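Predict structure. Chain length: 289.
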Amino acid sequence: MFEAHHHARMLADATRLTAFHDAMAEVIADDDRVLDAGTGTGILAAMASQLTAGTVVAVEYLEDTASFAKQALRASNLDRVEVVQGNAVQVDIGTPPDVVVSETIGSLGPEENIVGLTHALRQRHPGIRAFIPSRLRVLAEPVVSPEADALRASVIGAYTREQPGGMSFATVLPQAEHALGSQIITARLTDATSAGPARPLVEYDLGTTPEADFSRTLSFGDSPANAVHLYFEAPLSPSVTLSSHRTAAFTHWGHSYVVRPPRASAVTIGYRNADRRFTCRWDGAPASD
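Prediction complete.
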């Protein structure tokens, strides 16, 4: 089903649209054939069609979304954009593309399979000159965040107040603390301050890196950080980089973070493409029955 609310948020994200437009203007040549993989509403394909005399092919996996894009592009007299419904790696798009544009970027980067998608497209079309974005980095920054303190106080407060029926969660509070620290929260971290340098978790060379899976352990020792801000950087072109860092222009991706449990000094952050999810586990996590 066409997710009108989700796509409306992306259409309202001027930072996202401006970054992709400026990057495409820098990368796409006059006669380039462009593939927009995962086109959604077709907005990036529409912008690409204004930058090249070549054909623009917009591929969308979801049938209802592809139909929406096709109707909108036709009504806008953007007849040079060809909408194809199906898997971008498998469908017949005719002449191979010169440039691939793909905004299949998840909240932290790889969750929408941009790594596997671009690698598979390179394997099928080895003559691709450029990918937009060209790389994808995921980083972690220790921060001191009033938002994280307020969230922790709210959650732990629910477990420490008197409960109906004589129920008490006092003995399992450590489990609750670590469970909270394993959950990636999306909010605004504009009031957070840095508690140390950002550290890279993984970097993907899109089109070349075959798999998105990774695992890395970070140690914070006696850092005052009460949270770890997780964010991506996506170089779209030599001069344009899109970022979900807390100090960058706010986008529909929001700001992601994990709460640091009391006395925890190290966290292992990983990603499994099979699950399409990130995992966070702090040291000293209590065993659960």
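Summary: Helices lie at 4-11, 14-27, 43-49, 63-75, 114-124, 146-160, 173-181.
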